[in-house]
Every structure is written in structure tokens, then in C-alpha cells.
Design goal:
Largest sheet: 5 strands, mixed
Distance between the termini: 89 Å
Shape: globular
Strand content: 25-35%
Number of helices: 4
Number of strands: 10
Radius of gyration: 27 Å
Helix content: 10-25%
Structural class: alpha+beta
Order of helices and strands: HEEEHEEEEEEHEH
Oligomer: single chain
Length: 199
């Protein structure tokens, strides 16, 4: 009986010691990324934001020092230094086809033949901290053509926490990217050029 009592006492003492032990607190985790409108990421893809940007043909600025170039800069605070250094920004233009929802990856080059002259329209994008730049280049040798229609862009901002979701995915294939990131199932914030132009 004494042995059982002693074993029970020792067991209880060990249990109390281990239950009372608590190690030092670990470092605080990173805050989750909010969506463009302040909501948390949805559909199992945290660390990603999608923005649908509407741009009108008369919003382009003609470059004063580069022949055949028009440009547009969007103020986009979602593009943080961490995104620039460790994440990604993808930009897709909605195809200009009535009643057909399709997106094409930028940059986009269109070959044009007009009056025996062959030239191109090129649509590019680049990003830096807090900004997204869109460029239109027309290579006509004497009379470059300015953008002549409204354009709609889907911008996908991937923070470092979600960049690995695109491992092995062709980012030029919108359908492949949309499937992996569930782009078409997410709420997309719509912004327009009136509010986000940087002159």
C-alpha cells in the first residue's frame, strides 16, 4: 500500500510540474493581408488581391520625349516593397470581344499592316512600390496611333505567402492561373481611372 501511495504521489508531483511549466512566448506572427477594400482574403487564397481596373481611351498621356508612346500610372498601395521584392504582380487585359469574357496576359503585341506599312501596337506593364505603370507603344514610322478604345484589366497581386501557388503554372495562360488561384470565384474590386490617375 505504501508503494502504491508513493507512486501515486510521485506521479501527481510530475504531472503538476509539467502542467505548470510554460516556455517563453514565441515571436508574434505576421498580420494577414487584407483585400483591396479591407476584407480578408477569401476562398483559401490568403495573401492575394485581385483588382479589376477600367481605363478610358482619353485617359492616356502622350509621352513628350518618346515618339509613339502613351502611358498611364495607377496609384496602387497594395504593391508593397515586400510584393516587389518577393511576390508578383500579374496583369491581364480583357479581350475586346463583345459578349465574350476572355483575358490575355500582358505584354501584348499586335501586328498591323496598313497602306503597305507594317507596324505594331504593344501594351506593356511594370510595377514599383505603390504604382502600376501601363504603356502603349505604336511603331508606325510617321503617324503612331493612340489607344482608340476603353480597356479593362485584371491585376493579380501575390504576396510572398501565396507566390508558391503558381509553381509550375504558365502565368501567360489566364485560364491556368484563374483555376489555381480561383480568380473567377472571388470578389474583384472594380476601380476606374478617375480615382487612381497620377499626373
Amino acid at each position: 500500500m505504501k508503494k502504491i501511495t508513493m507512486l501515486l504521489s510521485l506521479s501527481l508531483a510530475f504531472i503538476l510540474v509539467f502542467v505548470a511549466c510554460e516556455g517563453p512566448a514565441g515571436p508574434r506572427g505576421y498580420d494577414g493581408y487584407d483585400g483591396y477594400d479591407g476584407r480578408d482574403g477569401r476562398d483559401g487564397v490568403p495573401g492575394m488581391e485581385t483588382i479589376f481596373f477600367e481605363m478610358y481611351q482619353n485617359d492616356w498621356f502622350a509621352s513628350s520625349d518618346q515618339f509613339g508612346r502613351w502611358f498611364y500610372t495607377i496609384n496602387m498601395p497594395e504593391i508593397t516593397e515586400d510584393v516587389v521584392n518577393n511576390g508578383a504582380v500579374l496583369c491581364y487585359r480583357r479581350a475586346n470581344i463583345p459578349e465574350y469574357e476572355a483575358f490575355e496576359a500582358m505584354p501584348i503585341t499586335t501586328l498591323i499592316r496598313e497602306d503597305g506599312i507594317q507596324f505594331t501596337n504593344e501594351l506593356w506593364y511594370s510595377h514599383s512600390v505603390g504604382k502600376l505603370d501601363i504603356d502603349w507603344w505604336d511603331s508606325h514610322p510617321t503617324d503612331p496611333i493612340a489607344p482608340g478604345y476603353d480597356m479593362y484589366f485584371k491585376i493579380v497581386i501575390l504576396h510572398p505567402s501565396s507566390i508558391n501557388k503558381l509553381d509550375g503554372v504558365d502565368v501567360n495562360d489566364y485560364n491556368a492561373v484563374a483555376k489555381v488561384l480561383e480568380l473567377d470565384d472571388r470578389d474583384t474590386q472594380v476601380i476606374n481611372s478617375k480615382d487612381f490617375k497620377i499626373k
